[in-house]
Amino acid sequence: MSHNRYLIVGGGMTADAAVRGIRQVDPDGSIGLISREADPPYDRPPLTKGLWKGKPLESIWRKTQAAGADLHTGRTVQALDVEQRRVTDDQGVDYTYEKLLLATGGTPRRLPFGDEAILYYRTVADYRRLREMADRGRRFAVIGGGFIGSEIAAALAMNGKEVVMLFPEEGIGSRMFPRDLSRFLNAVYRKKGVAVLPETTAVGFAPRGEQWELGIKDAEGPREIVVDGIVAGIGIEPNTRLAEGAGLTIENGIVVDEYLRTSRPDIYAAGDAVSFFNPALGRRLRVEHEDNANTMGRLAGRNMAGRAERYDHLPFFYSDLFEWGYEAVGDLNPRLDLIADWETPNQKGVVYYLHEGRVRGVLLWNVWGQVEAARRLIAEPGPFRPEALKGRLPEAA
After folding, report:
1. Which tens digit of pLDDT belongs to each residue from 331-363?
2. Tens digit of pLDDT for each residue in 194-211?
3. pLDDT class for 1, splitting at 50, 70, 90?
C-alpha cells in the first residue's frame, strides 16, 4: 500500500505539468504518479517534429522525478474505488490518495483489420521502433492525412525515405483547412517526393517476404502496394474506462467543472481525455494538443493543492509541414463560413472561421506571434462583416 497526498494516473505532459503546478502551491506534499508507459514523462511534439530534424532524444525528457514525484512506470491502473480513495494497478498494488488527478490521455484508433504489422504512432517507444524500421527499410506507407499522418510523412520524406500517404479525404488536413489550402498541400507533398493518394482507404495487408503488401482501395477499385513499414495516424479515443467504472460523468470525455473537478470533488481530470467548458466559444471542448496539456495540467495541480482558479484558457495548436507552418486557435471546422485574408495565396495569411458572424476559429498560416490577438478576436461578440476582418491580423507589435 502506497499513500500520497496527491496521486496522478497518467504519465504524459499533463501529468508532469500537474506535478509542477502542485509544487508551485505545496512544496512538500507527497506526489505519486502511475504511468502505463515504461518511460518517464516527456515532450510529445518532437516525436513527429524535432527528433527527425536532428534534435537529440535526451532533450525530450521532462525530469518529473526531480520535481519531487514518485514515479511508478510500466503500471496500468485497473480499478478506482472512490469511496476508499484507492486505486489498484495491474500488479495488484494499491495506492491511496487525498486528491486524485486523472490524466489518462488517449489510445490510438485502430483499423478494422489485423494490425500486427501496423505502427499506431503515439509514444516514444513508437518513435524508437520507427527509427529502427527507417534504418532498415526504404519505402513506407503512412495512413492518415491529419496531424500525425502529415507530420510523419514529412519527417520520413525529409530523411530520404520513399513515402506513400493515403487517406479517405480529398486533401491533407481537409478536416481543418479550406479546400484550396488542403489541395495545395497535396501538391506540396508530391513535389517533396511523397506519393499522395487522397480518397483512398487501407483494406488489409499480408506479409511478402521481409516486406508488407498493403491492400488499398480508391475510386478505381482495390490494389496493393509493397512497403517496408506501415504507420497509421488516424486519431485517438479518450481513455475514460477508469472514470466510467468509478461512476464519474462522461460526455465525449471526462466532464469537469471550471476548476477541473470531476463529479467527485476530490477527483480532478485534465488533458486529452477531458471535456471542459470554454467561455469564449460557449461550449464544451475536448482538446488533444500540447498547450492544453501543459496549461490544464498545471492549473489542475494548483487547484488540487488548494487554489481555486478557473480554467478559461482557449488552447492553441501548431504544426510544421516541410517549410510551411501554422498556429491555430479555436474551432477550425471547414464547414463554417470561411474568410481568407492571404498576403500570398496559400503561402502566408490568416483564415477566419465564422458562425453567425462570430469568429470561432483562426488559422495563422506562416503568420507568427498572433495567438493572443486571435484569442481576443474569438472572444468578441461580433457580428463581423468580411471586410472588417481584412487586415485585422496580424496586429502591429
Report:
1. 999 999 999 999 999 999 999 999 999 999 999
2. 999 999 999 999 999 999
3. confident
Residue 76 and residue 79: Cα distance in Å, rounded?
9
Report the top-level CATH class of 118-232: alpha beta
Query: Which residues of the chain form CATH 3.30.390.30?
Result: 323-389
Question: What are the residue ranges of CATH 3.50.50.60 in the chain?
Answer: 2-107+236-304, 118-232
- For domain 323-389, the CATH architecture is 2-Layer Sandwich (3.30)
For the segment 232-254, the average pLDDT, to the nearest whole number, is 97
Whole-angstrom Cα distance, residue 195 to residue 181? 18
- pLDDT by residue (tens digit) across 164-184? 999 999 999 999 999 999 999
Fold entry, domain 2-107+236-304: FAD/NAD(P)-binding domain (3.50.50)
> Any idea how long the chain is?
397
Are 365 and 324 a contacting pair, CB within 8 Å?
Answer: yes
Element (H, E) at 3: strand 2-9
Reported as a pLDDT band with limits 50, 70 and 90, residue 397 is low
Neighbour-count burial of 356, counting CB atoms closer than 10 A to its CB (0-12 exposed, 13-18 middle, 19+ buried): exposed
